[in-house]
Batch of 4 targets.
Target 1
Amino acid sequence: MLRDASGKMVLTKGWKIFHVVVAIILLTAIILLSVFLGLSRADGKSWMAMSENNMESAYYTLTDSLLNIENNFSKLRVTRDGNLAGEMLIDVAMDSQTAAANLAILSYSGYDMSALVKFCNQVGDYSKYLVTKLTGGEELSEEDYNTLAKLYEATYSIGKKLNAVKDALMSGEKIVTGLDEFNSQFTEIADSLVDGSIKYPSLIYDGAFSDSLEERQPKALSGEDIDPEKQQDNIAKILCDYEIKSVKYTGESDNGFTAYVYDITLEDGSNVYLQLAKKGGSIVMWDKQFDSQQPTLSVEEGVVLAEQYMQKQGYENVKGVYACVTDSVLYVNICYVENDIVLYPDMIKIKVSLDDGKIIGFEGLNYIYNHTERSLETPSVTEGEVRNMNFGGLEVQSVRLALIPLDNGKESLTYEVYGKVDNYAYYVFIDAMTGKAVEVLQVIDSDEGELLM
Amino acid sequence: MDKKLVLKRSMVAVAVLITVIVGIAAFYSVQPAEETAVLKRGSSGSQVRTLQTKLNNWGYNCGTVDGIFGSKTVAAVKQFQKNNGLTVDGIVGAKTAAALGMTLTSGSSSNSSYNSSDVYLLAKCIYAESRGEPYLGQVAVGAVVLNRVKSSAFPNSISGVIYQPYAFTAVLDGQINLEPNDTAYSAARDAMNGWDPTNGCLYYYNPATATSSWIWTRTVKLTIGKHRFAV
């Protein structure tokens, strides 16, 4: 830049060009930036709209399915024909699943609507139970119909309260921007199920979500209470594969029964987390982190080690019944065997390292809850009769007696029929008293696991 | 000022402009790479069986045709890739598959795609929610998810529970999309196999960060690491 004789600044031609170029560049940058911001905003808006649409779709699907349930319950008040009632109940079971899934989408924090989700799941489960009763040749009792009538009242009241949400939506309010508001409306409905302002019968029936299953008692715990601070010897026996550096008693776990919790440091620097039952001191569970290296042992060798470990810990008459491997970690399911009957409800799981054969975990909750003296019935169906049954395309490989746990918390003496179709493994369980099939299990990812005979 | 200098400065300015444009263009073109089907160590199922059968037939030793992509299959694939002038990585992608005469399809790599994705989802949730916690604290988080699946008051599937809005903060803020590490996978498998240090708890919270007043009303059953587990 130059100055003229009077001291004024004079722009040379070069500087003028430079300024013009800079101005053009700035202008272009501003235009680009605004386009970019505009696009981002539009993007944000469309994401928001999509979210809102998903929420509203969930809301309307929810109300539709609840209305269907209400209608079917209403019709069941004047239906005493088993077949027709069965059809309506199947619809209820399906609609309640839809309702529960959509409620979950609308839920604000995973817990405030749990009473409402529970209502839907329980209604569906109860309906399924009634359908099973009907297809089994039984009739529905007047008590069943009374319960259904009460459920109709409850569904009707819920529907009425949900209308408030609909009114808000129709007046243009958005769920995504008014989450707190909508949430409080849903929470109020859920609360009224809990506090009794919507009457909701207690559902006790043979199903997975029956109210009767909420309080289960540990059957296997017996003996004197142990002193939590004096378990060093007991723990050394449990962790017999390891050199223990220190045992730290960290406190109680108090869910269902009291257990003492220990944090154990081993000489190799790793940690074991262990729980002992207060009553009698039996192992509830223990586990340690494990990094797989190179397996050196076979599955069969690992299963033998798991069985030997169980015997060392004082569990007699146990047998590995199923094993699966991931990397070098072998999970072995171990069951009590009584008179050649496999007792699945008492199953204990053992984790074995196939790198060095050490036991790396023990899971005994099922044992603690279910293990007890049982008087098992004598089967009225023979193994030969079961082998002659029609199992579709199943190539039967083995049949043995097994006691299995059912969804409703009961146990059933069955024949376990194991076989394969196209390399995929199946278990079919046949009631040993009635000869009816009670359960079919398919081994998922069967390549990784195998049945042990 | 001479023309050269002007030219130089103009060029610098143009360069800045180009950088801005390229930057914005790059921002918009960042799309996740399209997912293509590959078979690699850890894959399993019918496609792996086909692969093993083909390799065995051509004299590459995969061992027994078991449908599991293990170390023997990796070695056989590498040998095949070497002999056919392909990149030797032991992974069957589109090119290796084409050389093998196979078409890879994503999904359905096992008899039920359900199981494997469940372990993956659970591991993701554990990693996002509790990666700084002691190992058993991570198993416990996995167990809480599975206890919710079993409970009537929550959705009846693992994905339903994990993606329930606002149920897990790590899902809400996107941490769920971090790739889980081996520890999270081990914890997920332990939880799926029944290990439950909480004995049936449905909730957990970190008392230092929990914002909901409701959660404090739950009965705490035990504490592991920074988390309180409750019903």
Target 2
Amino acid sequence: MSSARKHDHLRQLESESVFVMREVAAQFERPVLLFSGGKDSILMVHLARKAFYPARIPFLLVHIDTGHNFHETIEFRDRLVAETGAQLHVGSVQASIEAGRVKEEAGPNPSRNGLQTVTLLDTLQELKADVALGGGRRDEEKARAKERFLSHRDRFGQWDPKNQRPEVWNLFNGRRSPGEHFRAFPLSNWTEMDVWQYIADEEIDMPSLYFSHRRRVVERDGTLLAESDFNRLLPGEEWEEKTVRFRTIGDATCTGATESTASTLEEIIAEVAAARQTERGGRSDDRRSEAAMEDRKKQGYF
Amino acid sequence: MDLLRLSTAGSVDDGKSTLIGRLLYDTKSIFEDQLEAVEDASNRRGEGYVNLALLTDGLRAEREQNITIDVAYRYFATPRRKFIIADTPGHIQYTRNMVTGASTAELAVILIDARNGVLTQSKRHGFLSSLLGIPHIVVAINKMDLVDWSEGRFEEIADEYSDFANKLGVDDLTFIPISALLGDNVVDESQNMPWYHGSTLLHHLEHVNVGAHRNLVDFRFPVQYVIRPDQDYRGYAGRVASGAIRPGEEIVVLPSRKSTTVASVDTFDGPLDEARAGDSVALTTTDELDISRGDMIVRPLNLPTADTEIDATICWTSETPMEPDTHYWLRQTTRETKAFVNRVVYRIDVDTLHRDEVKQFELNDIGRVHITTAQPVFFDRYQLNRETGSFVLVDPHSNNTVAAGMIRGSVVTVDDLPAAPAEEQLRPVSPDVVWEAWNIELAEREALSGHRAAVIWFTGLSGSGKSSIARHLERRLFETGARTMLLDGDQVRHGINGDLGFTPEDRTENIRRIGEMAALFFRSGSIVLCTFVSPFRADRARARGLIPDGRFVEVFVDTPLEECERRDVKGLYAKARRGEIAHMTGISSPYEAPESPEIRLETVGREVDDVVEDLLGRLRGLGVVR
């Protein structure tokens, strides 16, 4: 609560998120917190520490690893886990491929983003998790705008947007039948701007990828893809070194960088305030069709 | 920078999605890629303009059918304020979504198409907004461009809607003429309506007073979760529902009623010197008590109502109709108990506000019911406290949330009483005097004191033990913070009834005056204890008639004459036997024992404390005291 007597709205959002996390801890038996290494999931860990202080976070951290990571993400993840004393479980998409549960996409730009869903559901089942906390926010995408704080999933892990439980006042109904589980989104009411302002107020450590740096990238379909073992050049393309930063961090094959010189939190906030593109605008996975996110959510995406 | 949660209601035809699109667009909360996506979609659909509505209609079915199915949340901010819009559809079949959206809102924007004027739907939105206790309502009269920016048309609609809203008791109602499509008076002032001198919609949203719905007086802390990292620390985690608390203050835990003191108000960022409504904190206590989720921490002199019989307005939110025999889960604050709908009082027709008699509720029905719970629920009336006055019912088979409820009070409440008692004509009335309703309603006084008012009338022979029992009982009640008054025979005969003797006529007048006094103290919210021999049934019945049903408790202190005479504390029996006292009840004047008193007490061979304990238990059983 130290943050922000000046930012009263952040204090209210913080209190709301803490309230939701405590409800989850109280109403469920085997809660897990989905940790991607991005700023939203780092914020989630920060808020979870606040919610249960001085006890340790009562959620198992689960990372669904596509194998296509920025090494900065993994280093940051391991440091945070050590610092908070939390437990970490890694679900591997590579393992799902090898087990024949999913098939790698063909073509020049194979993304494992879609494959994550199977690994995620398998992992949740393996852990017998009855709720998975995610850092999703309603401002991210149209289909997310209709998400509940506590989102019911059927036995197949699917979301039915037309048949959601009404969520009135602050009364969260987590009652479930065996085999069903929930997703919980404590950051529902935060916007990208709120997240950055709060990170600055609270001085939360962030991976270097978010800050401006020099990196070899290639422009493809309006997105700047970073050079890595997983991104290959198409005929006629060439790597180019640019001053960039990432607005979101996900699978390296589909998370685009943006040209930016913002190297401090203050500069990032100024940039977000002036931005004319959504943060997911750099993600080719959302742009595949008008209802891309809705379709993936129905199947059980984060 | 603070936060305003608002809801919008209206159908696509009213231009609601366009209005929200306009607010987002003009406050630069829409990004280029979102706008491009909408432009693409508008083109593909063959629309000749950029359809801002597509920005908000998020689900594929909605875009295809041009309707809004579910509550969608939108965000925008200005340098002054962050806004969360709960965007709810206006069709009748989606009442439950409007209730969902309105439940957390502090302001409602109701859209009216200037061409169509006040429709049933506009009234329905106003009714639901007032029912859900939204303190501020803005009526945006849209499409002013299509009525030639006519001031007359605006006034006509505003007058009609004001008449309707007055019936609902809406406190803050504002009318703004706008054109969402062209942007007039949404963010920028209109050049087309020089006759309008009020704020633009955004200006109004930025300046309306927030937090008005918060109850800052009554401290209520529903325990959410117990934090226990080791043997040495026990923190009771929760969000302050209302009021405030500081370390060192005395608290009571419900339902155990054990009291202790707040040792600290803890957060990750260090201890606080005060936790206020809305703060998520952990409380530690000086004594180790058994406190768990579902308990409520309150102040000893400000208790919520505890009851198992609840009078409530509910909205049915499920496709499965209400079942009279189903034992639902009732969830209120962090508490959960089994409950069933005991009685459907009436259903409200949200369009006409008529009350219909029905047996059960179906999807989107709203009305008044009586609910019986297995465990007591600790609540305040919804009107006084949204956080502790709201609940949901959960179906035990499907686990779905089937109803959203707002508590009106305990089942027998003063709301059910006629404004002036029917016995009015039986009471003497001075000439040229007209009955006026009480300035402050009893329910308000009870909400303030945190307990119900009652008259506990002790009758019995002189020396039966009435006074001793009542004095002990009053002390016990007073120590729980209750407002009490004890009226005793010897006191009232000094002064107010000093002109009366002991003839049957004078005894009757004595009891009549005492009954009136008890009724006045009752109206002030007190628990009134009356200890009078009051030998005549008719006199006692008359005193009872001044008090609402369920609030008058006749306690017959049934001690045999021989025992009373043996005790003879005041020496009255001896005097009577010597013939020095005329009209001594039991000796020379009759005692008409009650035929069916609420409570009958025997005292022979018992200690006063023991009798009082017994009495308290039975008063609790009757729901008279807690």
Target 3
Amino acid sequence: MADQNEPKGFFDKPENISKMLKVFYVICGLLVVADFIVHRHIYHDWEKIPAFYAIYGFVGCVVLVLIAKEMRKVLMRGEDYYDE
Amino acid sequence: MNSVLPFLPLMIGALAAVFLRGWLRSAIILAAPIVGAVNLMGLEHGVFWSIEFMGYALEPVRVDKLSMMFGYLFHLASFIAVLYALHVKDTVQHVAGLAYAASAVGAVFAGDLLTLFVFWELLALTSVFLIWARRTERAYSSGMRYLIIQVLSGVLLLAGLLIFAQVNDSLLFNQISLQHDGIAQIGAWLIFFAFGIKCAFPFMHTWLTDAYPEATPSGTVFLASFTTKVAVYAFARGFPGEEILVWIGVTMACFPIFFAVIENDLRRVLAYSLINQIGFMIVGIGIGTAIALNGAVAHAFNDVIFKGLLMMTMGAVLHMTGKINGSELGGLYKSMPKTTILCIVGAASISAFPLFSGFVSKSMIMAAAVAEGYDVVWLLLLFAAAGVFHHAGIKIPYFAFFAHDSGIRTTEPPKNMLLAMTLAAIACVVLGTFPAQTVYALLPWEHSYQPYDVTHVLTQLQLLFFSALAFVWLNLRNMYPPELPSTNLDTDWFYRRLAPNVLTRVGGAIYAAYATVERSIFASVKRLVHNSYDVESGEPKGYFGKLWPIETMVVWVAVLLTVYLVIYYIPGSW
């Protein structure tokens, strides 16, 4: 079990987390900016939409999680459901 | 040629493990995959040890680029898995693991369907012991269901190959295709479904998500490497370019990610993501162009390594803490920092980060889908690629090693486990960074492909970082579904709950009806007896009941004689 006196881990400190998140947001921003600077190959019409992959990845994952949450209402049972 | 049958070194290793103990066993079972791989190097392309059986030519060993690629892969995978299982003091697991790997090698070198069938069934019979070796009630019944479904797949294959032999007068395993006439069509579909069960097609996938998480920590590493990849090989050999596979594959790539998001058992999350990755391969095989097929088998190659790595890290967590549910874990990075880093390497590989192995193979399949005009498929695969990062890339490391501190303090797993995971992690990076010298050099079809250009790297990074951003955003807004101790219903509900319930109910109804009939018969007989007996006077109510048997008989003889006399006189009166 956790020792009361042990030093706090790196990820236990909120200031470290917020620093990491800031770096993460900056990278996300740079990737979108790069989309306008770099000339990328277009294999498909939808790829012409600026930052198509960024938008698709974000929206796709939010939709994924929201649908999965709804699925829980129908599919979730107790841990020992099949053992009863 | 100085080589022996390709599966023999591993099989001998398995047999040796039965009799040997201690360091001698460790040395032999580690050497078996190495000897096996060296043995493969000595094999030239062609057909060896041909025999004739009941008038059919059999090719127990056929070597070409496709079988060779899977042959090397299975030896690499079995070496890593054996190393990972080295500390285990359980003969069953060592023997079953190596025999299972040997069966997989035998299956991919089988040049005819009968040999394939034999190894197909051996895969099932050897691997089930890795599940039962967990020695829990759950593992036992789960293994039973696994075995039944796997053997069913073998039976379908046998039925299909018998029809195939009858129609074509040959048992050789080449392209089968689904376009035939008459009975040959049935045979082709039977083989297709036999492969499909082992490949975990939708609705036939529950044996995988049911059984793999119930196996032992090292057993699951073996399991995740072989059965499904043999099936992928069989599809690449037998049904390349069948369009139906594109749609089956894209379904496989998409539906498991929803289950993976809400699943609590982290090894079951990986089992779902295993189906998701096979989906990509099946799409590639369905598209059927050189780049698509190359992408499919390259992805199978990479998947065995990175999925093995992820399974190993979760196995290490289970081995050290005895827990595997996301709801009970968290904060383990403090006591298992090396395992944490190795897990992140596996997560980066399965999510197809540039420089990691998934990137160089998944992008081939995506490129093939766009090139062949499968727009919707391409979009769905892109969604699945974002989703896999979400559940396997972020969820697995996050809930096991970070998230809220569960208070569990443990240590790193045994050295052999760490070493096996390190080997797999190095392989992931090498395969992803130098594909041309490694996995691409083994590809069976002629096609050159360059994964690293600005477009690919940029678009993939955008996709992944914004998927991660979605995770961060949902988490900060408390919209991310928490890990809950639960069971999620999947299609196995039909045979684990519905069918038993229906049977119980129908059986109960029949028994109740029988009991009612029986009771009413008893009651009516009792009533009959009761009505014919006068309790008060202590004698039967009927006239004959009051007489002695001899008196009754005299009466009846008199009646008989009278009737006889009457009949005697009737003809005379005419």
Target 4
Amino acid sequence: MEQLSRRRFLKISAATVGAGAVGSQVPVVSSLAMGSKPPAGKVETIPTYCEMCFWKCGGIAHIRDGKLWKFEGNPLDPMSKGRLCPRGTAAPGTHNDPDRISKPLIRTGERGKEEFKAVTWGEALDYVAERMKKIAAEHGPESIALWKHGTGSRFFEHVMRAYGCINKGAPSFAQCRGPRDIGYLLTYGTGLGSPEPTDIANTKCLVLIGTHLGENMHNTQVQEFAQAVANKATIIVVDPRYSVAASKAKYWLPVKPGTDMALILAWCNVLVAEGLYDKEFVAKHGHGFDKFAAAIKDSTPEWAEAETGIPAATIRATAREMAIARPAALVHPGRRVNWYGDDAQRGRATALLNALLGNWGRKGGLFIQAGMKVAGYPFPKFPEATKPKADNPDHKWPFADEEVTTGLREATITGKPYPIKGWVVYASNLNHTLPNEKETIEAINKLDLLVVVDTHPAEITGYADVVLPDTMFLERHDDFYVGWGRQGWAAIRQPVIAPPGEQKPAWWMAKELANRLGVGQYMPFKDMDEYLAARCEKSGIDYAKFRKEGVVMGPKDPITVEEGAGIAFDTPSGKVEFYSEQLAKAGFDPVPKYTAPEAAPAGFFRLVTGRAPVHTFSRTQTNLLLRDLMKENEVWVNAETAAKAGLKHGQYVKLKNQDGVVSNRVKVKATQRIRPDTLYMVYGFGHTSRLLKSAYLMGASAAQLNTRYKVDPLMGGTSIHQNFVTFEKEA
Amino acid sequence: MPRFGMVIDTLKCVGCMDCVVACQTENDVPQGYCRDWIVTETRGAFPNLTLEIRSERCNHCDNPPCVTCCPTGASHVEDFGRTVQVTANQCIGCKACLAACPYGARFVHPDGYADKCTFCLHRVKEGKDPACVSVCPTHCMAFGDLDDPKSEVSRLLASRKYHTLLPEAGTKPRVFYLT
């Protein structure tokens, strides 16, 4: 992360001297005021929920003299609790971003060349509808697939499903939280979803294993993390990098990348061998515990020390810390956990460790999520699907409970089980999101139609036949966000400011498309106001009040055993499955097993990735406010490793992976804060789209280097830490 | 009359820079400038490390060199809260205050005057916290009257270890960092 240090600050000041000298404008200040004019003008406030990331915090937009001034947290909202993260606060920087797509575009040059002509909305939508009809006539509507991320895709999904497009893919499953959710589903009978039911605020011992809260700005969890720090909870952080969270921890375990499973099993081993686990919980709710205990008998701390590099004594000490605090001890389940291709089992291992701590439904552990009901809109029934989905033929990944993106990509490449000829891509930069860009481009080249709907250009946009400019979240209606948490709630998304160009909201595009595809009856409402009001009326919610306050709270239900909540497990045995018969039956390990990661070739280093608090994926690099805080990423290199390689802090270097793929240049951060055998980069940078003028070739893309990925045999998750890289110095 | 100060808990701060963005939007800070910023200080060698993350800004010093050096009186100590402020239309942009400030807290606004953190006095007058304090997701900042022993800032300083920046400069800074 770039620091706005005093030095940089002075540099900024120095740069100003010129501007000040040239600038002939004499400052006119009306009042005897402070440095800059204090904000003045007529201010109007409108609540709406944020979509700078997927956390969906409630905020309040401030419009001053008709212009967007600032975006603050909504105190009534349980996600933001009145405080947004830097990306939410920087939402005006996205609204005002000059790199946004402002007009509908149709491709004029070769795919990937980013050559377009601006067209009218009518032309663009006619073009899309005609191509979709042609594909449907030739191959069936199943041959058009939707790729999606975020709330705005909701009506595209709806209209496409009405037209018979059953195929879809969301990278949030196989490229993010999927492995964890499947691990928990197999163990507890439920995935965890978003936001995770982690009672960080009340925990006495918090274990973060590969979770870098604070850099990873999941707002509510970061707020609670700070509370846990203030409460003097015992914090244990497992990370090859001295993360911000690690700096707050009592124990930092700089684990060798890829060996988490050995550490988790050794922790389980200590809890079982020393009789420290929650025997009452296990006896009452556990299934197959004896077989589990037998399976992990040899996973001793001494064994794990050799694999992980963490001293056996530290493994024992940290396991005992968890035991002392249980049930108010919490192993964070993680979120973006697609790392080495065996991640569902790793997710399951953390689920079992939590089970040994007996923290399910307990204060300071994993609480029982509460929700609220908001009635749906009375849509007509969708037509029956006549073909199975194409992404997971013959249940190749038997435990995938959502669509597998790379499976859909593979179907597009091979034409099997049937051809996929059209993609509609909503806010998913697939070139960065999916592993191995080459395969993505290969799939794109098989398409008769590629539509990209987005606020900003991205690498994927350059390949599109049609680009439909979306409004950013402050400029549009969307469906309600009905959340699950400590208390159910619903939040409203409503426009607070007009878009700067010809951008249109996704629901409008979907409705227009529905009319052109002959499925207009599936979008029977005039506009979103009518749709949202109808849902409210059916639910007994005061829509006018909802619009004014932004949030409606659901009933207050008990969420912990302490509060009187009951716990039940929707697994085959009806219990927490320490031993999983369904995994055994499918030919997988019924108790998670450790597989040693591949060793790095000589001269190569493991590349791991993570997030910065000021950016979301590859979506915010041109945000006017955020780009100033971090305009490029850095490659973190251990200071001794850097010295040996002859690299100086701050110099540019390129990274080359085992397949010879070379990154864009990236600045070296020579630091003590990382293991000597590991490199780290924040992902989302290294844009190669020229349309992203202020982010073009700034930093390096970790995704670009992810050519050797492994696929999780349980659920199709793809790894992103499987690559090794070496340095290529600039000439 | 209160004497305003700020107390920032470095143990809670995660360095997310939300305070920087909130200040920029609240105060219409021009593109490319900031009135507050984050400094991360790493000590030790792998794997025995410590990290201090600080949200820094004008320290509104009790003994402000930027005020004493100002040839026009634009830089002054405001009665309300004893804060250091700049009267923009008295400032000639000579940059003496930029040179005098040991914290690099000032810059010349494109409109030609010295600019810096105001402790969001316009908000404080309305009974609100400064923008950086009220936005912080970690609740790591407190703002208030240092002369009131019952204020949150006074209670924090009475109960916790803290340091200030460059105390040897003799400026008597009023932003305190809890450790």
